[in-house]
Amino acid sequence: MVGAFADHLRRDRRRSIHTVRAYVATAERLLDFLRDHQGGEPNLKALGLADLRAFLAARRGDGIGNASTARELSAVRTFLGFAGIEAPRLRGPKVKKGVPRPVSPAEAIALAEDVAEQREGWTGARDLAVLLLLYGSGLRIGEAMGLTGAALPLGGTLTVTGKRNKTRVVPLLPQVRQAIEAYVAACPYPPATEQPLFRGARGGPLEPSQVRRAVRRARGRLGLSERTTPHALRHSFATHLLGRGVDLRSLQELLGHASLSSTQIYTAVDAAHLMDVYRNAHPRA
After folding, report:
1. Which one, of 37, 211, 239, lies nearest residue 141 by Cα?
2. Which carries the bigger pLDDT value, residue 205 or residue 245?
3. What is d(CA 126, CA 191) in angstroms, rounded to the nearest whole number?
4. Among candidates 143, 160, 165, 162, which has minimal Cα distance to 257?
5. Which of 18, 200, 230, 279 is packed most tightly, with the most Cβ within 10 A?
């Protein structure tokens, strides 16, 4: 059943590999728990409210917090729904949504340039192109790594495949386009339609972990916050556009959010930034 559940998530629900891995792990944990809790082969149809509470309490005992508990409950509901069983009604824990921490435009550029300067040859041009793309077009790092040579030649926009295989069109600033073209020209591996656009040193796909590691080192050298990550560049893209008057619906499309509520968090970011400016600049603040 767990294997069929994984196939269902991948094929029918078009979930990412990370979501599939997490939901399958939850399903396996639930079944293991029920073997001990029910004293035999797990019976999902007999799962009641008290059993579900006991499972979540056991997970709490493992040290998970509210956000992880809420994700665990969501995964259980999805698994039970796949099995044709109505999940017991249980309200999940309240999860306080954190406000993303953007970096300033100057910090974003300095970060990209610092990372590039630590590399020799074409890999420096590659890292500069990747980080400028994340900030200039608001891509998730997985979306950038998923680009192939089919994106070439570049124009004023870029078609990106995001979560659940949904495609969207994002703007490509001239500076970003020039950085990508400079990388492609310097890269020793010729671009191919079916091959990754961004290559590792040996020609394979560039791993997101390599980019995250390079950013982590650069932020230490530049004295930036620990929250300065590749994903923070996407937050900065959204926050800076909102500050320049872009409406939420347009921003939602650019970011590839399925729900407007995911985009609305940036209104809090922009308000928080405005208050910081006020406190620092107003003589009576």
Report:
1. 211
2. 205
3. 13
4. 162
5. 230
**In the prediction, which pLDDT does 280 show?**
62
CA 262 to CA 107: how far, in whole Å?
25
Q: What are phi and psi of 148, to 5 degrees?
A: -120, 180
Q: What is the DSSP string of 50-69?
A: HHHHHHHHHHHHTT--HHHH
Residue where a domain terminates, one of 199, 228, 257? 228
What confidence tens digit (pLDDT) does each residue in 130-165 have? 999 999 998 999 999 999 999 999 999 999 988 878
pLDDT of 171 strictly over 90: no
Q: Are both 161 and 208 inside the same structural domain?
A: yes
Asked if residue 109 and residue 78 are part of one domain, the reply reads no
How many domains, in total, are found in the chain?
2
Report helix, strand or coil for 157: strand
Question: Which residues carry out catalysis?
Answer: 140, 163, 231, 234, 257, 266
Structure tokens at 176: 């970003």
Tokens 């492609």 belong to 184
> Which CATH number covers residue 167?
1.10.443.10
Distance CA 115, CA 130 (A): 10
Q: How far apart are CA 128 and CA 112, in angstroms?
A: 5
Look up the domain containing 14 and give its range.
Answer: 2-82
Tell me how far apart the alpha carbons of residues 85 and 88 are, in angstroms, rounded to a whole number. 9
The pLDDT tens digits of the residues spanning 19-53 come to 888 999 999 999 999 898 888 888 888 888 998 99
pLDDT of residue 200: 94
Please indicate, yes or no, whether residues 133 and 220 belong to a single structural domain of this protein: yes
Spatial distance between the Cα atoms of 175 and 88, rounded to a whole number of angstroms? 53
- DSSP single-letter state for residue 16: -
pLDDT above 60 for 260: yes
